[in-house]
Fold each of these.
Amino acid sequence: METNRLSSTLTAALNAQMTNEAHNSQIYLAYAAWASEKGYGGIANFLFRHANEERNHMMKFLEYILKRGAKVIITEIPGSGVDPTSVNDCFEKVFKYEVQNTTSIYNIVNMSMAEKDWATWNFLQWFVKEQTEEETMAMDLLDKIKVAGGPDAKDDALFALNNELAKTPDDAILAQDVTVEKP
Ligand code: FEO
């Protein structure tokens, strides 16, 4: 008896997204290692923690495909590309990858809607919210490096930013979670 509840199109798209999340994890790992080599232990720590978050995202896609009775296809993960040239470049690349990931999630949301696969649509809403958080996190990083001097940030400003990021929470606060008491 057929128990697969996912179309072949959505199965392919969800498997591809699972690999995207693994790829993002590799990118954060590579950037964390780069930051560590450059002596930015706080920035490295922040990026290492985020690499784990991306790995968790990968697992959520894997589990969802399995639970809907479809086939998980594990493929090779693309490499992380070239190292950043500076902290500013690193944070700009993080923002770019997060926006790309949002576009990719939105595409699967559109596909699930076209198929009226409301289970998949519902599953993806967690990622829609998560991507808003991730983009906010990336924009916060860009704000911080801008205040530190952007591409011309001096060593003392980078040192302060490094110490700050070591203590920065992993999750950004979303507009919908803000109140008058907690702006
Ligand atoms: Fe899983 Fe940062 O997107």
Amino acid sequence: MSGFDFNKRDSFGSRLGVIAAAAGSAVGLGNIWRFPYVLGENGGGAFLLVYLLIVFAIGIPVMMSELVIGRRTNRNPVGAFKLLAPRKPWYLVGLMGVVSAFMILAFYTAVSGWTLEYMYQTVTGGLVDKSSDELAGMFHSFRAESLRPALWFVIFMLATSAIVLGGVRRGIETSTKIMMPLLFVILIIMCVRSLTLPGASEGLDFLFKPDFSKITGKAILMALGQVFFSLSIGMGTIITYGSYIQKDNNLANTAVQVSLIDTMVAVLAGVAIFPAVFAFGISPSSGESLTFIVLPGVFQQMAGGMFFSFMFFLLLALAALTSTISVLEVIVAYFSEQLGWSRKVSIMVATLSMFILGISASLSLGVMQNVKIFDLNIFDLLNNTTANILLPLGGLLIVAFLGWFFPSRDVRDELTNGGLLKARYYYLYRFVIKFIAPIAIALVFLNGIGIIKF
Ligand code: PHE
């Protein structure tokens, strides 16, 4: 091999590469599939406002904190906490992240697989001339089939593993640097199409005009969960990517840029979806089926619909792929650094175990739908517990660790690259991670699950 040193820890090669990879992780099904339906179910514009507030007040500080932990230690989440707090139980926060990674990858890759089915259906004409009932039937019977969704799942998982096998720089960085700009172009095309439909403005009103009576405790919890899920924070993905970032990178800038890109894509996805939904007189609160039932119906009715349908599901697939690789990387970094396995073996073990968990998640919408835990099928259990419980809890512990248990001087040192950068925001950041973020997360959380009421 051409001078590739396998003992040297891999790293990102450029600033742009860091942004592409981290924004690639953040931008995903969370923005295009989950955000619009959660927003639709929780009142539209008011939800957006709460969402933006949480991104700035909590999301960005948590992301900065993860980057600090990762780059300070150059380790996977478990190794990082072990290094920073030896012989203390903090490494359990990292371990919780690895467990969350397994859970997310399972249901997330299942949904990613559906995007392939819908690209396939678009090309083979399966989405033409269908009534909305037929489209709904098609979606439900597709998910209830055992083989098809499982097959797409396997294909998507293998694509993910193949990129991660290429390594951090040659696999993850190179592929995201190509996929992210492509995704952006497709999204803009979709927005233009949607905005030029007659009656589009009603969708914009829904998205941007807040109705404050819709802000309930549950809506705030959903917004918090959505911020964590969408920014990929609270489970060590950003710790892991941070561990591959070189010492001259300005971590605060990186956190702000990635968060802004992610938020912009979520808003643009809303702009691509709601005007079209309203233009064709469909209810915006149709839940998770918005993407797979409502939109195909919308595409059928618009000029050039099948082209846009293909583009849309391609957009989803690309966005999903740049996220699944980041989740798999957490598991692989943990296996290879903590358990001492080679990357190849780590990827193989992770992929094979994912086949079991992911196919169960996929089947839980079909033949296994009667298997219920806490009254939820496996898919919903994975989707809801990760976003609304594990990620916020992880985020709370991460900021509490940096705010209360780790020397402030070291945090500052990492954020200023050893004193080379100015960090005028530092005291504000410190105040946020010590007080605002932990208290806000705890309150929202307890209120959302009904332990306290405000
Ligand atoms: N942020 C990704 C999305 O919005 C999902 C994700 C969550 C990725 C957690 C990594 C970690 O689709």
